[in-house]
Amino acid sequence: MPVSYQTTVEREASLEGTSLHTGNKVVLTLRPAPADAGYVFRRIDLKDKPTLTAHVDLVNQVERSTTLSQGGIKIHTVEHLLSALRGCDIDNAFIDMDSNEPPIGDGSGEIFIQLLERAGKAALEKPRTTFELKEPIVIEGKGGSYIAAFPHDSFKVSCTNANHTGFFTQYFSTEITPERYTTDIARARTFVFYEEVEPLLEKGLIKGGSLENAIVIRGDSVLSKDPLRFPEEFARHKILDIVGDLALFPLRLKAHIVAAKTSHALNVEMAKAIAKSHRKYLSTLMPVEYIPVGEGALDTNEVMKILPHRYPFLMIDRVLKFEGENKAVGVKNITINEPFFQGHFPNLPVMPGVLQVEAMAQLASILFLRKMDEAGRIGFFMSADNIKFRKPVTPGDTLIIQVELTKSRGKIAKAVGQCTVNGEVVSEGEMTFAIQ
Prior knowledge:
The protein folds into 2 domains: about 5-285, lpxc deacetylase, domain 1 (Ribosomal Protein S5, domain 2), CATH 3.30.230; about 300-435, Thiol Ester Dehydrase, Chain A (Roll), CATH 3.10.129. It is built from 8 helices and 25 strands. It has helices at about 80-85, 110-120, 180-185, 195-200, 235-245, 265-285, 300-305, 355-370; strands at about 5-10, 15-20, 25-30, 40-45, 50-55, 60, 65-70, 75, 95, 120-125, 130, 135-140, 145-150, 155-160, 170-175, 190-195, 215-220, 220-225, 250-260, 320-325, 325-335, 380-390, 400-410, 410-420, 425-435. The strands form 6 sheets. Strands 11, 12, 13, 14, 15 and 19 form a 6-stranded mixed sheet that branches. A 6-stranded antiparallel sheet has the order 20-21-23-24-25-22, with helices on both faces. Helix 1 (about 80-85) crosses helix 5 and helix 5 (about 235-245) crosses helix 6 (about 265-285).
């Protein structure tokens, strides 16, 4: 199978318009981004121009749209833009905005397709990572709503739209490719029921809504500026939303998504479940034996012959095994006697996340020092990226540390790592360090 490389936009391109829920005027600009950047929003209207990388862990609200927030930055209604980016095969982009919500256009993804046509597409030098779903996932909602994901050799979405009126029950199914997305999905508009309009306005939503950017369903009638663009326009728009919400899982996905009467809340739950399934899959890549075997295993004394760290900052009790020159598995037994528990926290002992990162860095240093045959040197952090803390680590836990060197040049190396407890990922990230 040929290697698929990551992409970004080729050039800067902008559009302006009115947002649906806040009703604000907004200028949105796409800019090229490097590999592994993802979709990075930047609020250029705020002090220091804070950024937010689209990720399912940052979902703040899912009523009628998907909202992301982190620190002082909040972005509403991200699903149409993210859908267009993912549907049109763009992996990385910087997204500058001078307000808190992208423009709604005509309620479909068409304005973003036009924007992407102006921006173009450029291939990057790093291969794309794709997650092939390994087992089915089913999430059920209220009133017969559900979303399910099944292993598949491509990304396919099948959706049934049904509602309380008994009218406009629709079904549509398609493989998501740039060509099919552009012709079959992107032009499908958002819709709302007539009786929902007033309650949504009372909640401070759809301030920028009109018959020019949304279809209103009243009984068996459709109120809109233009007639339906497709016989299954509502089902197709649901697919547009699904593609956008699942783009909050950062990797490309191979799965068949099957949904009925789905919502942003269910879509986001599916994105979280897929992320969990991916973490579970990663934990199986380097299987752990709890009893050291083979010549590669190192006990504490042997670890200290390689690392200069000592109490209370030695975070590796044993190296359980090496896999070639670039992979290693280690262990740290967490006891109540750890000195950091005295202040972190006296009544709720939790291992600091930064020390979990330190454990990964120390194991990566062992790999690198062993490879260079320079035991006793010190590894200094240069950067730590994409660090995620998933669950607390407490006294009595056995921390399994797994690392892999991904790049090394001279005395500088990069590594990825994760820490698990009872098979569950508790922390993970990427590290760059230098040996002195």
